[in-house]
């Protein structure tokens, strides 16, 4: 900073004496020399203050500043205007920057069309697995099942387990195993949490959640035969423990469904009645009541419950049932 | 180990002598059974930390063991020279090689394979630094991406490409450093297979391939399931897309190509049963090169186990095998649970190492816990099979994929009826392969895979019907002695080795 101040002061002194020299008995050589020294000093001062981006070529920048300051008394305002206008209109070409232009390349492939609607229906996938002679087609069907919900995919994967091709069986197996492993991991976590929980209602909620996981194993078809009975009984016991402390209508419906799956129809009916008592809307309970009545061969009751049920949306399974049992 | 030159170089990927299992037992058996040949072993593993100590005492006719790992932390500071045209001719060849890996319908031509194994990982060829850092390599990579990759991000492609091709450099280097032997014998396709193929073409040595399972098939299933491969379609909602993502296809195609090329270069291709032979032919093996040599066991080893059997049938079902997903231990556990509803005293013993897949072992333990089977399902780890077999009423195998499981033969030789899923040659072993064999009767029962109910039903039937159990026992003993004694297998391999070596001479 001190250097700048000194340069500016020296520049001013030089310029002053140059002017004095011109005004009195002019010694043109001395005047021009002093003006040149002043121009150099001011070029340095202004170089320090100009923005960094203009300092990439220091010699050219300094030279430009010097020439502007040196020629100012001769060319004056007109000269500066002409010089600047010309410079801005015709900038120098910077040859150091190489710019190559490339055309946008043509893509050698077409983007895959992705439809919002599934390519195959579930029935279609099953048909492929059963009837397609080409193993790759059957493999594709199993791969398609990876993008479906568990309840839809599992029957397809189970069917694929019977395939004669090793690849298809192995893929179906590992996909199924992955789904089951996730459930078993959750079961284990809840078991550990229940083991260390004593406070209600937290314990009750955990028992209900664990019961739902056991139910899921049966509902998704991952547990069958004696194993299915075992997981359902586990779910039943846990849900019963849960309602001892926290009585929610949803748990009663859940217990009703478990009892139904275990063929305990009377008990299922009682749980469903309790669900209504505890405030569950009748429309949620009626389909299960109809199912219980049907299993107990009480067909009039079945019809009555379905009639009582509000009209269901067209095409839904319940609507089909309602239409079937309609008088 | 002796200092003699080896006759046969065995190429072993992820197996003997570091990992126990069926394939390792077989390798050990072959080395011991053919003492007039000297063997040199080449073990190829993934990362060093995946393997522990050597699991076998190496027989005296093993002259040397070479150990190589494909995934090692590269501390090399070497950088390739810059310049677009640097080693351009070599990278033109690299491009050709890569085209074969991308489109695997045809195997890599022998000349190109030879050139690859002579060039890769050499200072004046394409070394790893050239592959990783040179501009020529970058051009090949970007060209590949812009021409063929239709959906994956460049960053995913870039790393997959590097990880996919990098092991080839290591393999080429290993191949050039192999000793001169009379015969190269690989025990699988995969990296060991391509190493055998390359080593065979550059040294003009005969090459034999034995496949216990089908490597390409198993890799394909792993890759279809692999969650580390990102796929853009998965984020596109519920559309039932049946296509695999580009990166996944790229990996599968790579392994299909190394399998196909191995089949092309092998002078003889051996499988354990006809089903696998057909599969090899379908995958590119020439039918005239493909043979079946079934496994055999030392039946005399089980005479004592047979003598020690108790008069009563023990209500114990044993599963002898590694605790890994392919053995479907979970179906076995579920089957025991179901069988208990008919036979409450039945127990299930899982006999085999469980260190290989700790996650799966944990899952199995969780299942045992969630089914309240802690008192009746036991994980016994590694055991002396001759001591454990007399304590079992049935040996069950619930695998979802097998070739020719030795444990079934061993159980039969010890007088234990067997129960196995309908995979590989299990049906052939239990019910007989030829008419003469079938006439001996059934040595047990075959059940569908992943079917706990059917397995449980057969367990209770077999354990409660003593007459049928004794018939299964007799048939099993007759079959294993007549068709599966190891002497048959040794004779076949001795002839194969002799013929292949003599053919060269």
UniProtKB/TrEMBL annotation, chain A:
Record protein name field: Protein PelE
Transmembrane residue ranges: 29-50, 62-88
Domain of life (superkingdom): Bacteria
Source organism of this protein record: Pseudoalteromonas arctica A 37-1-2
Keywords associated with the record: Membrane, Transmembrane, Transmembrane helix
SUPFAM superfamilies the record matches: TPR-like (SSF48452)
From TrEMBL, chain B:
Coiled coil stretches, renumbered: none
NCBIfam families in alphabetical order: PelF
Sequence ranges assigned to domain DUF3492 in this UniProt record: 6-288
Protein name: DUF3492 domain-containing protein
Short name of any one Pfam family annotated for the protein: DUF3492
Lineage: Bacteria, Pseudomonadati, Pseudomonadota, Gammaproteobacteria, Alteromonadales
SUPFAM superfamilies to which the protein is assigned, alphabetical: UDP-Glycosyltransferase/glycogen phosphorylase
Signal peptide (from-to): none
Species of provenance: Pseudoalteromonas arctica A 37-1-2
PANTHER family: GLYCOSYLTRANSFERASE, PELF
